[in-house]
């Protein structure tokens, strides 16, 4: 049913035309409970939240969660409209120390959020989710702070990254950042990976969208693999690392 839903959606509305359809991933395990993830066109990811005694059961449970979210995403309330933006900004103001006046100032967090929503007018929340995940990762990774120090405005950063998808190149640059962090503070990679795995498991069991947590795990695992599989090539000079990182930002 999930496969047919997205195939039909792509044929009718050309949604996510550059993406595949539905991708399943089962975690290797010698025995139950089994874990399965399903990634939808556009990148949104869901997993089984029940305790599953077989891989097939885990796959079906993950598909069920993804199908429910896919159908829910079709509701008018899940599409970004002027009314939706107004309500979202008001909720953001209520949960922070900002004001409604900040919504017109892109240099503030509220203003940046407002700008991102307006730039994606008409899209559904699953379509908007990929861009949000990119900025969640940039914030977690420390990249947004580095960009602010170069005097880039929030609006410039949003406009730049809105043109890109979360791909292997972006993951590699973020992994490089964590390799640099590991050199400065040995052990931070393993500590961060343990936290990411715990967050991913908790979010999966709660039936939440998992892209952000899963990407964190993939980026940190990539960084660890690069460090331990080829330590000579993962230890260039600080100048070389800084230059490579900046190439990723610009």
UniProtKB/TrEMBL annotation:
It comes from the Eukaryota. GO terms for cellular component: cytoplasm. GO terms for biological process: autophagosome maturation. InterPro entries: Autophagy-related_EPG5, LIX1. Belongs to the LIX1 family. This is Protein limb expression 1 homolog isoform X2. It comes from Camelus ferus (Wild bactrian camel). The lineage of its organism: Eukaryota, Metazoa, Chordata, Craniata, Vertebrata. The gene is LIX1.
């Amino acid at each position: 049913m999930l496969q047919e839903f997205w195939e039909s959606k792509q044929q009718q509305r050309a949604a996510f035309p550059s993406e595949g359809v539905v991708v399943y991933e089962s975690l290797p395990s010698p025995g139950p409970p089994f874990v399965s993830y399903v990634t939808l066109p556009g990148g949104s990811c869901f997993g089984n939240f029940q305790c599953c005694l077989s891989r097939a059961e885990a796959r079906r449970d993950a598909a069920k969660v993804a199908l429910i979210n896919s159908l829910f995403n079709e509701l008018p309330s899940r599409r970004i409209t002027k009314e939706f933006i107004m309500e979202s900004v008001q909720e953001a103001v209520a949960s922070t120390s900002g004001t409604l006046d900040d919504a017109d100032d892109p240099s503030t967090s509220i203003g940046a959020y407002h700008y991102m929503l307006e730039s994606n007018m008409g899209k559904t929340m699953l379509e908007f989710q990929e861009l949000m995940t990119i900025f969640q990762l940039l914030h977690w990774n420390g990249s947004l702070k580095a960009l602010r120090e170069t005097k880039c405005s929030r609006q410039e950063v949003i406009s730049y990254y809105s043109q890109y998808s979360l791909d292997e190149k972006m993951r590699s640059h973020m992994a490089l950042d964590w390799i640099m962090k590991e050199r400065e503070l040995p052990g931070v990679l393993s500590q961060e990976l343990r936290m990411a795995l715990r967050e991913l498991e908790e979010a999966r069991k709660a039936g939440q969208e998992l892209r952000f947590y899963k990407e964190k795990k993939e980026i940190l695992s990539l960084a660890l693999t690069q460090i331990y599989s080829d330590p000579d090539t993962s230890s260039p000079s600080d100048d070389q690392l800084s230059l490579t990182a900046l190439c990723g930002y610009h």
